[in-house]
What we know:
Strand order of the largest sheet: 1-2-3
Shape: elongated
Mean pLDDT: 86
Number of helices: 2
Structural class: mainly alpha
Low-confidence stretches: none
CATH superfamily of the domain at 49-137: Glycoprotein, Type 4 Pilin
CATH topology of the domain at 49-137: Glycoprotein, Type 4 Pilin
Strand content: 5-15%
CATH class of the domain at 49-137: Alpha Beta
Number of strands: 3
CATH architecture of the domain at 49-137: 2-Layer Sandwich
Amino acid sequence: MKKREKILKINNRGFTLLEILIVVAIIGLIASLIVPNIVGRYEKSKEEIAKAQIEMLSSAIEAFKLDMGRYPNSLDELINGNDPNWRGPYLAKRQIPKDPWGKEYQYKHPGERSNYDLYSLGPDGQLNEKAITNWAK
């Protein structure tokens, strides 16, 4: 009898299928509450990065205008120039950053909304309400 009691005690150490299912369900509920918030914050942080980069590029464009007396024809003029008044490069890393979605920033001079238009097409790659711009929306 003692051997049988030892075997029963050993078999009682594990979890039942019902206990495992309850734990998995609880983890699933917690994940369903947390994951949407993380994804939303990740996209919001990309928008904030794009806004900061547009501000940085706008400052570089304005510095270029102070030195040259005109706005650059392209963003590349912020890095390379052969005019005697050119005092660049106007960007510390000597490169034009890509937006957080891996696309080029769009620059137009003369702009349709101001002296120049500078914007990122945003997550969907279109100039719409999700685009990050240097003009007021």
